[in-house]
Design a protein that fits this description.
The complex is a heterodimer of chains A (173) and B (277). With 173 residues, chain A is mainly alpha-helical. Chain A has six helices and no strands. The chains are: A mainly alpha (173), B alpha+beta (277). Chains A and B meet through helix 1, helix 3 and helix 4 of A and helix 1, helix 2 and helix 3 of B.
């Protein structure tokens, strides 16, 4: 009985993994700046939200994503609502792709992710520049988008392994 | 063509408007909420500002806790990197150490020369231990500008000792009791201190006015004192050592003290002795 409870708890914890990771990443502002690599930066929350909204949306609540966006705005120093808007748009794009896809393939997901990131980043920074009169370094944004795009495949594979691990753990119970 | 447009609309509607499985809110509702927040934030709506402040309070504390493991990793990474660059660091330090040693030797010569020159001009070079005292009574009248401190002869306080507030001179000890002493402030009418006015190096006497400022006295009328000149103790008269900052010149001969005498809570009492031969 106790073993059963423990197993359920572990499964629940594994299910919450993506959202915990999202909150850690926005609170911690994972940027790898300490590596002192010039221009290296990527948007981990974009990858995480897109992947999990596409593959297992029930693991990421929209309300929680909205709150994560607010936290990210506070940490980064953007106006409240900017990141939430971007994150939710990514969820929308991922949900759309899920609805129209019959035979999923990582290549299609990857290309659609590029389109999503380009649209969402354009919207995001347009709001900041036009609405809030922020000064933006466009080169940094382009490099950030490129790295985010390239790293998607790597993280998607890691998340796939994690997803399989959750599935096997649930099957064992 | 028509069917493909319908599919697109259905897919978009399903993605944005319909609530998904296990979702409490629809994407459309949350997107509208984000836009409302952005618009209100743009116009500095106070409720949004309060929300920002509350979230900040929460997020900054949480962020500190969440960053602990990452900080540990960063520190480990830096430690590891340091180990790899250990030899190069050692070489750099060796070089720097050599330079510092040569500087120390130069400094020794300059210190010895300084001492010798000070001896020639009969200046005060040795400072006795500082005694920190608390200001007990600070009731200043226009007739007497003085304070009472909680140190007296029991603590080796002697008449004429200099009283400083930080690095600035505020007065001298004029009365010593067993456990207390009276300090005559520079602003007292009876206070007369020999001073040097820099950068010109004019010698003069600073006199208290009974108010919060002082007055330069006994200088030739043709001497032009400009605003911003700094007043230091001159060391003549064997009262204080030279070079203790006092205040700055304002409006011809008026001196504004660096220290605010009405705010004295703790002061340093120092005696200066002559250097040994």
């Amino acid at each position: 009985m106790s073993r059963l409870g423990k197993g359920k708890f572990l499964n629940r914890l594994l299910d919450l993994g993506p959202i915990i990771l999202l909150y850690i990443s926005v609170l911690n502002e994972l940027d790898f700046n300490y590596l002192n690599l010039t221009y290296f930066s990527f948007n981990f929350p974009f990858i995480l939200i897109f992947y999990w909204s596409l593959k297992k949306p029930e693991n990421l609540g929209y309300g929680l994503i909205f709150a994560a966006g607010l936290i990210n705005d506070v940490v980064v120093g953007f106006p409240m609502g900017t990141s939430s808007f971007a994150y939710l748009f990514i969820c929308g794009f991922a949900a759309y792709l899920r609805n129209i896809t019959l035979r999923p393939s990582i290549l299609k997901d990857w290309m659609f992710f590029l389109f999503t990131v380009l649209v969402v980043s354009s919207l995001n920074y347009s709001i900041l520049v036009l609405f809030f009169e922020y000064n933006i370094n466009y080169l940094n944004i382009i490099i950030n988008i490129i790295f985010t795009f390239f790293l998607y495949v790597i993280f998607a594979n890691i998340f796939q392994i994690y997803q399989k691990f959750i599935a096997s753990s649930e099957k064992n119970d | 063509m028509e069917a493909s447009r319908d599919d697109f609309v259905i897919a978009i509607r399903s993605a944005f408007i319909q609530r998904g499985n296990k979702q409490r809110f629809s994407l459309f509702f949350l997107l509208i909420l984000s836009i409302i927040l952005l618009v209100l934030g743009r116009f500095n709506f106070s409720a949004v500002n309060y929300l920002t402040i509350s979230v900040k309070e929460l997020v900054y504390r949480s962020s500190f806790i969440v960053s602990v493991p990452e900080n540990y990793l960063i520190n480990s990474y830096i430690d590891l990197k340091d180990h790899f660059t250990y030899y190069n660091h050692y070489q750099e330090l060796k070089k720097k150490n050599k330079e510092l040693n040569s500087n120390i030797e130069n400094n020794k010569f300059i210190i010895a020369e300084n001492k010798r020159l000070k001896k020639i001009i009969d200046d005060y070079v040795i400072v006795s231990d500082e005694i920190v005292a608390k200001v007990l009574i600070d009731k200043q009248s226009p007739f007497l500008r003085s304070v009472i401190i909680n140190k007296g002869s029991k603590d080796n306080i002697k008449l004429g000792m200099a009283v400083l507030d930080g690095d600035f001179l505020v007065g001298k000890v004029v009365e010593v009791n067993f456990t207390t002493a009276r300090v005559l402030l520079l602003s007292d009418l009876n206070s007369k201190i020999p001073v040097t006015i820099e950068p010109e190096g004019y010698q003069s006497i600073l006199s208290g006015t009974g108010k919060n400022d002082g007055m330069i006295q006994y200088t030739k009328e043709e001497i032009l004192l400009e605003d911003g000149y700094t007043v230091y103790t001159s060391g003549s008269g064997a009262i204080f050592k030279s070079g203790i900052p006092i205040g700055t010149i304002r409006e011809k001969r008026r001196v504004i003290y660096f220290s605010d005498f009405s705010q004295l809570r703790f002061v340093k009492i120092i005696a200066f002795k002559k250097g040994e031969n």
